[in-house]
Amino acid sequence: MSEPKVLKFPARPKPPVQVTLWEERGRPNEEALRIRLSEADYQAVKWSSEPAEGYPPHAHIYPELLWVLNGSLTLILPVENRLFELGPGDRVEVPAGTSHGTMAGSDGVTCLLATK
Fold it and tell me: What domains does the chain contain, in order, with CATH numbers?
């Protein structure tokens, strides 16, 4: 009897996490951001965390976008051994299947959490 063939999964590169810093004038406006997200086919909900509240590393089967409205958020990418500190207006796009965690800053955080 011959050995069974082991087929390899095709190599499919995962898109990187994309951080976009707020460079517009003034503070972000929730309604304006909701319109921009809707025009890009995202569904958004408002999400808040208390100071120093966090979520351990996890992954989703869908891409996730977090857009900070108030406060600050640390995004933790354990596989890449990286941290990103996000403030008002900053956003991060996390591809499906990417392990990530979060920790709210000392004043907590309020974000728009969006998915497609």
Answer: 18-115 (2.60.120.10)
